[in-house]
Amino acid sequence: xxxxxxxSLPDPHLSPTLHTDEPTNPGHGFRCLATHCKGTSERESxxxxxxxxxxxxxxxxxxxxxxxxxxxxQRILGGKWRAKSYPSSREGLRQAIKRHxxxxxCLAAKxxxxxxxx
Length: 118
Description:
Elements: E1 52-56, E2 60-64, E3 71-77, E4 80-85, H1 90-101, H2 103-108, H3 110-115
Antiparallel strand pairs: 1-2, 2-3, 3-4
């Protein structure tokens, strides 16, 4: 099972404020990366899904699946987050971001990818 840090993206069109030492979000036991960890949903396609790791621009985000066995790279389409890739390692996540979001986005997400603790 993955042991990861989570962020909350309350609105898909707002950038998260990452890397603060906020208290643990009740329910999953992992430390939040965002200033306000308010995700309460267990549905991976919901904007307020509780296992968000970080956002990439305004249209993409990385979450951990509800079984905590893999990452999911998602894009917002029609008001719902849709899965585009299911990597199971940090390197696989890096490659998925590069393939779907571009090399610049992958470079911009480098610190977030490296901050993932297993």
